[in-house]
Input
Amino acid sequence: MAAGDDTSRRGPTGALAIALAAALVIVVYGGYGRHWAWLGINGRTATLWDWLHLVLLPVAALVLALWLRHRPELGRGVGAVLAAGLAGCALVVVAGYVVPWAWTGFVGNTLWDWLNLVALPLAVAAIPVLVELRPEWRRRHAAALAVAAGAFLAVVLVGYLVPWRWTGFTGNTVWDWLHLLLLPLLVPAVIIPVLRPRVAERWEAEPPEVPNGG
Output
């Protein structure tokens, strides 16, 4: 009975995975390979930059949903995987500007554009980390946060005063910064205090898993 229940639960998920894989094949083969006009997807209209705009927020929401459902422990292994992923992303970004790789669509996008791209998805995806970290918050965490905030403010200030063109800050007003940062700052500030006690209650209420052989 348990096996049947498990299969029925995985049915919709498996069907969705198959549908997404089929859609990806159609996009890659038809859009980039065969240049089917009805797709509207090719190397000029859908660069990596365009795909990031499309998928980053949904992926961040998926990460949050999976964590709420399964709550995997965020140990050193997860941290190593995240670090490797971030290093790979940084390498692609640098190569996209330096080589440059036209398919990335990065050339011409400033730091301001990147902030608009990643601020909200990063705030959503960071919620599990912040919830797990909050009970163990120490001075070193506060110091690291203060250093990061200070470095960011220094870049913003120099970006306006020098000005550094690559920052894209010149011409952006306080109103523009409110549009950029208000929601990403409110998401963790509002959701985490509400979410953490409910998550704790849920996991305390769940019975411990019994090994199959027990």
